Amino acid sequence: MKLVTQTPKKALKAFLKQKPLRSEIDIFKSNLTALLDKISVIEKRPKDESEEHLKNDLRDFLRDTYYKGTNAINTKDKKDLVIHLGK
Fold this sequence. Notes:
The chain is mainly alpha-helical. The chain has one domain (21-83). Helices cover 56% and strands 10% of the residues. The chain contains 4 helices and 2 strands, in the order ααααββ. The protein has helices at 8-11, 13-17, 22-44, 51-67; strands at residues 73-76, 79-83. It has a two-stranded antiparallel sheet with strand order 1-2.
């Protein structure tokens, strides 16, 4: 197998042609706002909070924004956060 390098623009050409629906944009905006609110609350607390807490917030954002009902997001082996191909 030969590795062929591409520019990001060329590699994402088909992806860039997709137009998101207004409802998808609204879901993304509301979930991103909720994630940023959670992060700002954590930043105001003492620094005893671990990265595990933020990892769970990020998992919830990804699940609710992109993968709800289609993919499982969890750990696998020694990997902290994995998006599985199915439920």
